[in-house]
Description:
alpha/beta; six-stranded mixed beta sheet; four-stranded antiparallel beta sheet; 13 strands; about 35% helix; about 25% strand; elongated
Amino acid sequence: xxxxxxxxxxxxxxxxxxxxxxxxxxxxxxxxxxxxxxxxxxxxxxxxxxxxxxxxxxxxxxxxxxxxxxxxxxxxxxxxxxxxxxxxxxxxxxxxxxxxxxxxxxxxxxxxxxxxxxxxxxxxxxxxxxxxxxxxxxxxxxxxxxxxxxxxxxxxxxxxxxxxxxxxxxxxxxxxxxxxxxxxxxxxxxxxxxxxxxxxxxxxxxxxxxxxxxxxxxxxxxxxxxxxxxxxxxxxxxxxxxxxxxxxxxxxxxxxxxxxxxxxxxxxxxxxxxxxxxxxxxxxxxxxxxxxxxxxxxxxxxxxxxxxxxxxxxxx
Length: 316
């Protein structure tokens, strides 16, 4: 289990993590989300002793990382898959780690096979693609057969087959009763493999719940999308029923409404009564991405701006 309690980290006048508390439990894949600069990496570095908290605590199996007798056996970590000496082969990299904990060659061969590194095990890591580097990072995290895994962007650079493999791996580890904390920017992937999600913004906790509970918070969850010939008339009819019209796309002969508070059948009946032809009518489901974007809307520090590309851009 990973337990974070009132964790705070300040760098001078900048607060990177601000009173953060959450628990990643055994038998669970916990997704760890937040915009760039939200404090995710700093939090994970504090959990594994690479940063010292300004205040608060972060423990693994009830102990600080620095107090663990055999860290590789307790927690496997991949925070930066590129932190490998480029002149070492994959096998030699794993061997160096294994010797610090008395881990035998048979386990090295086992994780090499498990992560698909057998064809490149004797190649220097500096020649690896991004995806193969990720596999080596995951192999290193698995080397001590730990009860806790902390993986930062493990599918970055992997091909579709590799993404499926990581998904199955973390789910299997959780089924074995292990704790998995998984950070990723791929919402669709987290929705498929995570049980719970912790979302932070500007170093503070924004949400800590199951994936379904987070999805249910989205404005899109349980709404009805209708495209009709008379959107304005249909909007008036639906409002008369007490429905909430969330968005309208006016100015087209086949306008679209998104509505909450009424069923698909009620929307169809209202359209018939006001003489609106219906071209599309469906219930919308929310998504983890929708909920995440809504929760972090005020916590994004690095936001891009739209630019004009084309003849207009140069006419200045």
